[in-house]
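Deliverable D4.2, example record:
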Amino acid sequence: MLDLAIVGGEVIDGTGSPRRRADIGIRQGRIVAVGSLDEPAHRRIDASGEVVTPGFIDVHTHYDAQVAWDPHLTPSPLHGVTTVIGGNCGFTLAPMEEEAAEYLVELLARVEGMPLATLKAGVDIAWKTFHGYLDTVEGNTAVNAGFLVGHSTVRRLVLGEDWRRPASDAEVDAMSRLIDESLAAGALGLSSSWSETHNDAAGDPVPSRYATESELLRLCATLRPHPGTWLEFLPWAVGAFPRERCELMARMSAAAERALNWNLLLVRPDITDDAIASRLLASDLAVAEGGCVFGLALPIPQTLYLNLESGFLFDFDPVWADVIAKPHDEKVRMLRLPEVRQRLESAAKASRGIWYDLERLRFERVEAAAFADVQGVPVAEAARRRGASAFDLLFDVVLADDLRTILMVPPIGDDPDSWRRRMELLDDPRTLVGGSDAGAHLDMSDTFSFFTDFVGTTVRERQLLPLETAVRMVTDDAARAFGLRNRGRIEPGYAADVVVFDESLVRSKPIETRDDLPGNGSRLFAEAEGIDWVLVNGEVIAASGELTESRPGTVLRSGRDTETVLARR
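Output generated by the structure prediction step:
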């Protein structure tokens, strides 16, 4: 007797093979039959007229904190995501010591855009070890979830408050022991960052940015005895990669004898083919070193929602960072000063960040009635209409809103040539679809919904690739690249992580702001259209856009649920 049968649908199995009409039999959380079923089932799902695929796998999230108050890790499962990987970029909540907790929580709030009040209200840190953290997650998630151990976290624990310097040999040994213990407990690997956009609550570079190359390589070597592990790294933020960063990633992979993935590849007109080639060079160099490096590529144009309260990305420039890092009242005071405004304007005009371009940056949400006319208008255009300086108008509006103004960088790279280049990049073996950042940048980014836009509007309206290929990229490709055992395919013996959707309708619904976080926090949110059933380990966790009470997710532990991967396809 089957527990559940999905009948009448067109199965796209995740491997890229052509779709076929087939029924799916599920028993004890596993797929046991694909084709014609000859067993009765306790429950049947009629998938007639719909597509049945493996659940989508999100390999770059920051759900480490949200899992404490939201076992469904919304909105990901509403978009067909059944497996998430957290602990990226070097920022994790485990291991943990009481002395470091306040700094690390504030760091997570600052660099990953989570309201500090939400973290303080929603997370009760009752663990010290990585094992203890995973035990709190076990049995408490609707989706499958695995987590890396973070370099910045471990470095802060070992070096204490004196972490703004190179570590001694003894300190590197101590960090290695903590990482080794975390990996033995089930951490999926080690994450770190040298990205110049990663600054802590005080505006200082995060702890991992003070690490020497020697420290990084020694920590990477800690992974060797632990099967099913990998490295994640942010080497650089904007523009072409310096060759030495590519060489570093190749050496990191070789030192660990594990694959390394890095974040993030974007395609848009202002990012040249040469700049992209400079980033992909790391993969070629890794092969020569006996390693494996690949980049995560976002499959859709990126939209950014920014503000000067958190100031993320605006603090890319050190002149802006000095202001952004100030407490709220001091920041407000400084933004009123003409000399501060002049310094910020000069720095912005010399910067590479598109978010400083006031011809593009627009007022997305303005609360002050005196500036209602600028909402929805690019800052520079609004200034011309008012006969004002663009930067003065920007700061005047932001101050009138007490820093709550939402500023938007419209999608860049929505032109035909960018889409052509994007599809070519996604087909490159040195890349993997990813980079959602789900659970992070809650006031800034809507990329958590890219799965439904990718398998929906990109395939249906742009017709740039077959649906079978798009599904493969976010299921089997992801599972194989990260060594996830028995996931990513509709195949007997595989976990019954399944999505049933209407390919003629599937898409992300419009982005909205929800005030539903602990501590009265707000976040960007989007539901999905056309996703009718989402199953994890054979249990329904979402039906017709409504979440169920089931929590069948597995905590993915290295070695048990993953296997070692040393090369991409």
